[in-house]
Amino acid sequence: MNAKTLIQAGIAFIFLAIVAFAYRGNIDIGSDPTGRIWPVQAGVDAMKTLARSPLMAALVLAGGVGLVILGVRKPS
Question: The domain containing residue 9 runs over which residues?
Answer without folding.
Answer: 3-73
